[in-house]
């Protein structure tokens, strides 16, 4: 098979084709910032600097794609949430000062303009800068911050929203989630316009770490499904990332229609590969803590080998299960990428599939 560049191999996987080697698209924005000699506080209001960090990191390590991410607070901030900025860690929403003091306040909430609301344009500036600089040969995933359920939690306060789910009328809850879905869709489509090859959301608060699988199906699934359709109808593949052990909802996630599901290390990916449609790409799922931070390069090598064996490399983008820490040892990051190149080559995948 002829050699592909990074963008070509990522797009081959998305198109259901065999790449020359499985692509590596790590969730490494914090590590990229560290690699560039910066702090999160240097980049969280500066998209060009964030792009610069990604360019430096990608050129140093040679992975196939950059995931544009700043924090989990930007959409909420763009519609009025108070945000706590930290020097070396991503910003967080101050949930002690909720935007939605009453759920009914949602009917007066604005839809943000990604070009001018809060820091959303900084995310887009990072995407534009990367697209111009390396987007002809490197894959760019322009994340659109949080998904509908998580946005609702951040605007109302997570604990209070959990209470609301039990005490408020279903129609009101649905109206809140529909507002949050619209906000998410506007930002996701703006990422396409900025030059991203794929856009995505994180919807961690919709996962089993916080709510039951039944509650996911009752409240979070339909907004994600509707969001997916709107964004993909706009002409860009869509990805959903839910942290934690999603074994009990992975089949539902596969029914959202999202082209990519970003899965965490707690998921049984061998079983997940059987439960979601063959044309849905799984992206993951190496533990960002052990082995990537506290393990040895040999541990990383073993984990990547097992991941590829468990999935037989089918519709797979090799990645970390969640955001990689800025303290990830460089030797472990190199081992991560080298293992994917070694065990994920076309020849090795053909052997795994007995072809």
Automatic annotation (TrEMBL):
Residue ranges of coiled coil = none
Biological processes per GO annotation:
porphyrin-containing compound biosynthetic process
InterPro entries assigned to the protein according to its UniProt record, in alphabetical order: Methanogen_methyltrans (IPR052024), UROD/MetE-like_sf (IPR038071), Uroporphyrinogen_deCOase (IPR000257)
Looking at the UniProt entry, the stretches that span the membrane are: none
Q: Which Gene3D superfamilies does the entry mention?
A: 3.20.20.210
Which domain of life does the protein's organism represent? Bacteria
What does the record give under GO molecular function?
uroporphyrinogen decarboxylase activity
What the entry lists under PANTHER family is as follows:
METHYLCOBAMIDE:COM METHYLTRANSFERASE MTBA (PTHR47099:SF1)
Protein name, as recorded: Uroporphyrinogen decarboxylase family protein
């Amino acid at each position: 098979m002829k050699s592909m560049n990074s963008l070509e191999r990522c797009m081959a996987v998305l198109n259901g084709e065999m790449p020359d080697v499985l692509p590596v698209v790590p969730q490494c924005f914090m590590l990229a910032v560290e690699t560039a000699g910066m702090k999160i506080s240097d980049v969280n209001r500066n998209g060009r600097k964030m792009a610069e960090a990604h360019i430096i990191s990608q050129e140093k390590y040679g992975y196939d794609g950059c995931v544009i991410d700043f924090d989990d607070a930007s959409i909420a901030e763009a519609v009025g949430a108070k945000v706590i900025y930290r020097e070396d860690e991503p910003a967080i929403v101050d949930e002690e000062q909720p935007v939605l003091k009453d759920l009914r306040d949602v009917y007066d909430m604005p839809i943000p303009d990604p070009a001018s609301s809060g820091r959303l344009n900084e995310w887009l500036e990072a995407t534009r800068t990367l697209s111009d600089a390396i987007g002809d040969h490197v894959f760019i995933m322009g994340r659109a911050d949080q998904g509908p359920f998580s946005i609702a939690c951040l605007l109302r306060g997570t604990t209070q929203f959990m209470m609301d789910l039990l005490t408020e009328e279903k129609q009101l809850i649905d109206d809140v989630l529909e507002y949050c879905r619209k906000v998410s869709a506007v930002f996701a489509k703006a990422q396409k316009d900025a030059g991203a090859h794929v856009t995505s959301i994180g919807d961690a608060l919709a996962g089993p770490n916080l709510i039951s699988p039944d509650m996911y199906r009752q409240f979070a699934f339909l907004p994600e499904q509707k969001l997916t359709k709107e964004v993909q109808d706009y002409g860009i593949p869509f990805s959903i990332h839910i942290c934690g052990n999603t074994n009990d909802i992975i089949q539902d996630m596969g029914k959202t229609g999202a082209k990519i599901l970003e899965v965490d290390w707690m998921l049984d990916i061998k079983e997940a590969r059987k439960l979601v449609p063959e044309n849905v790409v799984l992206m993951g799922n190496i533990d960002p803590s052990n082995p990537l931070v506290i393990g040895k390069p040999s541990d990383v090598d073993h984990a990547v080998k097992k991941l590829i064996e468990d999935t037989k490399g089918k519709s797979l983008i090799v990645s970390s299960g969640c955001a990689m820490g800025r303290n990830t040892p460089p030797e472990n990051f190199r081992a991560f990428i080298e293992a994917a190149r070694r065990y994920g080559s076309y020849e090795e995948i053909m052997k795994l599939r007995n072809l």
